[in-house]
Amino acid sequence: xxxxxxxxxxxxxxxxxxxxxxxxxxxxxxxxxxxxxxxxxxxxxxxxxxxxxxxxxxxxxxxxxxxxxxxxxxxxxxxxxxxxxxxxxxxxxxxxxxxxxxxxxxxxxxxxxxxxxxxxxxxxxxxxxxxxxxxxxxxxxxxxxxxxxxxxxxx
Length: 155
Hints:
The chain is mainly α and 155 residues long. The protein is 99% helix and 0% strand.
């Protein structure tokens, strides 16, 4: 029995050593696995931090673009309003110009008519002046004759 007890103790000893070796092997394996996982985690964390930084930069660019877009929209709206105002003014000025052109044409027509009337009146005035001069000459002649007659009669 002593041999069997010695063999049983030896088997237990071998089992304990096998268990210790397997625990040591599993510990080494899990430590290497943990180290690899830890390195992979750190790599992924660095990539995630880089992506976060890139996203923040893109967000800042997007905000700036959004501000510029709003500014551009506002400027476009202001230009649209100014365009509408200028278009309305242009339409009013065109109507005014057309009215003034019609008035100018009417005024020129009236001026031409008035000039022809003036020319006619000037001609009539000249004829009347000539007639008046002629009659004045006759009047002076008659007056002279009358005075000479009165002088002859009084003497």
